[in-house]
Amino acid sequence: MGRVRSQLKHDYKPRRPLPNRLSGRGWAVVGLVAAVFGVAMLLAPGPESQRLDSGLSAAENASATSMITMQIPLPAQSNPIGPPQPGIDAPAEKDASEAVSPGGEFLAPASDGNPSEIEAEEEKIVPDGERLVVAIKPGDNLDRLFRRHGLSVADLAQMLRLKEARNALKVIKPGDEIEVTRSGDRVLSLSRKLNEELTLRIVGGADGYSAEFLANPVERRPAQAHATIRTSLFEAGADAGLSDALIMNLAGVFAWDIDFALEIRQGDSFSVVYEEIWQDERRLRDGEVLAAQFINQGRVYRAIRYQDPEGRVGYFTPEGLSVKKAFLRAPVDFSRVSSNFNPNRLHPILKTRRPHKGVDYAAPKGTAVKAAGDGRVIFRGRNGGYGNCVIIQHGGNVTTLYGHLSGFAKSAPKGSRVSQGQVIGFVGSTGLATAPHLHYEYRLNGVHRNPRTVPLPEAAPVADKYRNQFLEASRPLITRLDAINPPRLARAD
What we know:
It is a single chain. The chain is α+β, with helices and mostly antiparallel strands. It has 4 domains: 24-121, no CATH class; 130-215, Nuclear Transport Factor 2, Chain: A, CATH 3.10.450.350; 220-325 and 460-493, Nuclear Transport Factor 2, Chain: A (Roll), CATH 3.10.450.350; 336-449, Glucose Permease (Domain IIA) (Distorted Sandwich), CATH 2.70.70. It contains 10 helices and 20 strands. Strands 11, 12, 13, 14, 15, 16, 17, 18, 19 and 20 form a 10-stranded antiparallel β-sheet that branches. A 5-stranded antiparallel β-sheet has the order 1-2-3-4-5, covered by helices on one side. It has a 5-stranded antiparallel β-sheet with strand order 6-7-8-9-10, with helices on both faces. The relative contact order is 0.07.
């Protein structure tokens, strides 16, 4: 009789666990294997059986075994575990190294290795990766950063070939964080948050790296606060739930009208409408001051933030006049006024009557000194008793002088144009000075005037062509200020 060839491969090595349910053909194979195993046990040569078969030739033995195998009936195709499954008949001519899936599909050749090698092979196909958050330290660059954490600098070079990545990663500063997903030294992906609303993400693939920018939208929610000053502006603001930055911004809005170092009194009050920045239902920080009212010694000041269609932003009174003046009252953040404008002052070093034609603002050495207004630097250098000195020419035949500086800002050389608030130097005690301070002078048509009391020219108001738009935009903010603290509670000059 000829040998029957089974259509299922008995050397099948599964790459993954066998399915819980066997098809009818599967149960046939199980029955066949069990039957063959039973017959083999019956025919196992013991002492007697060795004597019985010893007279048979090898060919006769093979023939007898073939006959026994053929006489074992196959069980019916049924599935005792669940409902019948469709039979799977793999083509008889397929190589034994190919496995058949329960769905009838041919799988990749099974590995001859152990299970751990198979799992490792699958991990290489779909790597999970290790997440690493890298903090930028002083003196770091990307090459040093990658080497410190055992990351491939070759991958870094490949990523920096992308224009988007090169522009977004060329400037890093201490405190920044870069998130990396790695597999060994291989960089699978890299993310860097560029700002609150934008993240750079670089992902590796079969064709190298690709870059994309992910939007992190934020929501700006209006908020409001009101406080009465008992001890200080900062304490009142903190009690009202305002951050230090927002309190500073509030003071900056009214800095041209109120000297917050010298003129604040107990009983003064403020109301403010401002933004809160939220992202994914999480409050990030305070935003811009939208509208504010400050009552200082009975005088009422109001300011509304407005951005015109050309992108210019400023604070204006409800009538559209700029709250900004052409000059700052104090061009430095000072701790106290150490000497006022005084035509009959006794000089502390020379001990003679010598007019003090400016104001001395005491501040720590190195404190930034800012230009009081827009203008051009006409002198920068050593100037007698003034020590290191800067003089700026402004419009309207006004000049300002800044003396006793410890050093100059590189961005404001002689002949350069400067804008109001730009740093031009740093507080020091050069020249005839007993301690670090800024000596500040204001001259109109060559005549010294008291910087703290001289009437300052106004900045430009809202342009006529945008006035109606400004009035419409400011109306709801003014209504909100009235609701917080009605203006009838204070007297306006």
